[in-house]
Sequence to fold (321 residues):
Amino acid sequence: MSVTQLIHALPAPVRARLEAARISAADLAPALGWPDEDAVLLAGSTASELATAASDLDFLVLREADEPIELLAASRGLPAGAFQASSLIDRILTLVHGVEIDVWVVSAPRLARLAGVLAASIGEDGTIHSLPGLQYLEQKLLCRLHEAIVLQGAATVERWWERLRVAHLPVFLTASLLVEAWSYLEDAVSIAQPRPAGGLGSPLGGFLAARAAAERLVHAAFTAAGVIGWDLRYAELNRRRLQREGGVPPAVLADLEPLLFPAPPAGEREAAAREYADLVLDHTARLVGEMRARPMMAPALAFLRSFGRGRWQLDVGFLEG
Fold:
């Protein structure tokens, strides 16, 4: 596929932005000209219609071959400062007529280890055998793959969706986030207690742990509803999106503000930290209840029940409800 054809495959708002900046196919060729066997996808906020006029244009390239990014950049006439190398993902970062183009380049050899971890953890039918310990870039890559718009190489993308269990990402990511939330809530309770009672005597630490649990809970609620992301910057916009699409968003999303921006602890700080932790736990119980009405979440609930037996000091009896 030529770069011109690639541009025609972009959503209309992205094409309009390129036209307004007078960016041609020749301008984009060093970053977006790839052989037909490579897959090219539009990713990030632009793919999910959350971009602003100042947003980067994010792309993802999946390649079967692995080649050092410095050699790729040199062969494309890109300067040394236009790329970043890492062990999993290489990036091409270039400014074209004032528009930043951010291209993630990922090769099959580098993804093989991640594919093996996911295949061992998640069955082809979505059954969760164990939770994969995803690193930040691994999770972000999977989220981008789930949300991206395929511009070139659909067959390549389909192969990698299967290898990386991308179709099941909402299920095992929701389970992972809830496990993290409950871990933080247990810390919230124990850290806030005085040392003679077995804690660390840090009510503020307990409050902060409960805040971290609230973030994971909100993230889990979006994921259970099918909105996949890796941070909460777009929480309000995604909540509006769910409401606009006519679905029934999880109830926890109606309480974003008190969950994420609670009043700071005052007076008896240990009691305030425990009260906040209890609020977050109550909301996790509500989310688990709502997940039962979402058939796709059945594997997540099955895993959480099995994983949770005898593990938590918290009262998570709602898992068996």
